From TrEMBL:
This is glutaryl-CoA dehydrogenase (ETF). SUPFAM superfamilies: Acyl-CoA dehydrogenase C-terminal domain-like (SSF47203), Acyl-CoA dehydrogenase NM domain-like (SSF56645). Residues 16-128 form the Acyl-CoA dehydrogenase/oxidase N-terminal domain. Pathway: Amino-acid metabolism; lysine degradation; Amino-acid metabolism; tryptophan metabolism. Gene3D superfamilies: Acyl-CoA dehydrogenase/oxidase, N-terminal domain (1.10.540.10), Butyryl-CoA Dehydrogenase, subunit A, domain 2 (2.40.110.10), Butyryl-CoA Dehydrogenase, subunit A, domain 3 (1.20.140.10). It catalyses: glutaryl-CoA + oxidized [electron-transfer flavoprotein] + 2 H(+) = (2E)-butenoyl-CoA + reduced [electron-transfer flavoprotein] + CO2. Belongs to the acyl-CoA dehydrogenase family. The gene is gcdH. It comes from the Bacteria.
Length: 387
């Protein structure tokens, strides 16, 4: 039997029946609903928010959280497969789900009060309440401890001043999880849309994640009651814990982008005839395609084992760093090579490689740049902090 070009090691056989069903359902959604429109959305700089109700109806928002809050309570591998299949469509679609699930619903669940969970999580799972995550600031994102946004206690309220930058979903969001310095360390606050002094401004002129909403958040003496503070965490471990959840999903997402670019190049190479034979018959193209298949296979195995570790409760943040570093680099390199195989046709959104390559310039940067994750591994193996 011939091997599956996108699954040379039959990794699918390692999945449970439920995991395979989830992957197949999200793959169908991507094929039927995302791929027919996503090129135009990218061209137009438009997030297809009309897809949100169906994404929610499929149980993809907060999918790892408990059923008591209206969520699907899936395992970590299932969440990873969701991210892979959504990013096979576009990084912007996967980013929307990642932010809603891992950066907004997760901190409310992990760090919030029961009242906050009941108030927000069911509506977020239904896609009726959209969230954004306010951590990164205009002066830089790789040093969150140097946060300039501050929250001061004033009676039973908190007054927040500051600005956040590169915020996915910002102008879509009904709530923002805003992290701020307080006299007791960094704390998280749920800031609702329409609160006086709170404003989101969409970022335009992007060449990456064009089918995603990216915003700046401004907080000018924003007053929120103490009931909107996340009570169960203080310090950097709060936002960093959220980022570990989101980065885990990101290790899977680029595999989908890489598969989309690779299969596009593979199909094109069999149809494109030069010098009386398809370019797939040339050694140069076969070497590139073989290398793509090798790197995708390694990334699949890496993320699957990471997911099994997460489900076992033994996953370490450094392991997430290694997988994000490897898989983002793998995907961006494959997309560039695939674009090259497509020649001139590869620069249009009629084919996915250039769109995915541009998107991955953001994915390889956000939630920890490649350099940051390399240094995390360097620290892990040497015991010396080089930050």
């Amino acid at each position: 039997m011939a091997l599956n070009p996108t699954d040379l090691f039959d990794i699918r056989s390692l999945l449970s029946e439920e995991e395979r069903m989830i992957q197949d359902s999200v793959a169908r959604f991507t094929d039927q609903k995302v791929l027919p429109i996503i090129g135009d959305c990218f061209d137009q700089g438009r997030f297809p928010k009309e897809l949100v109700p169906e994404i929610a109806a499929m149980g993809l928002l907060g999918s790892s959280l408990p059923e008591k809050y209206g969520c699907a309570e899936l395992n970590a591998v299932s969440y990873g497969l969701i991210c892979q299949e959504l990013e096979r469509g576009d990084s912007g679609i996967r980013s929307f789900v990642s932010v809603q699930s891992s950066l907004c619903m997760y901190p409310i669940y992990a760090y919030g009060s029961e009242e906050q969970r009941q108030k927000y999580l069911p509506g977020m799972a239904r896609g009726e309440i959209i969230g954004c995550f306010g951590l990164t600031e205009p002066h830089g994102g790789s040093d969150p401890a140097n946060m300039k946004t501050v929250a001061k206690k004033d009676g039973g309220d908190w007054v927040i001043n500051g600005a956040k930058m590169w915020i996915t979903n910002g102008n879509l969001a009904d709530i923002a999880i805003v992290w701020a310095q307080t006299d007791e360390g960094i704390q998280g606050f749920i800031v609702e849309k329409g609160t006086k002094g709170f404003e989101a401004q969409e970022v335009h002129k992007k060449m990456s994640l064009r089918a995603s909403v990216t915003s700046a958040l401004y907080l000018d003496s924003v007053r929120v009651p103490d009931s909107q503070r996340l009570p169960n965490v203080k310090g950097l471990k709060g936002p960093l814990g959220c980022l570990t959840q989101a980065r885990y999903g990101i290790t899977w997402g680029p595999i989908g982008a890489a598969i989309a670019a690779y299969t596009s190049a593979l199909e094109y190479s069999k149809e494109r005839v030069l010098f009386n034979r398809p370019i797939a018959a040339t050694q140069a193209v076969q070497l590139k395609l073989a290398d793509m298949a090798r790197r995708i296979t390694l990334a699949q195995l890496l993320s699957l084992q990471l997911g099994r570790l997460k489900d076992a409760g033994t996953m370490q943040p450094a392991q997430v760093s290694l997988a994000k570093w490897n898989n983002c680099r793998m995907a961006i390199d494959i997309c560039r090579e695939a674009r090259d195989i497509l020649g001139g046709a590869g620069i249009t959104t009629e084919h996915p490689p250039i769109r995915h390559a541009l998107n991955l310039e953001s994915v390889i940067t956000y939630e920890g740049t490649e350099t940051v994750h390399q240094l995390v591994i360097g620290r892990e193996v040497t015991g010396i902090n080089a930050f």
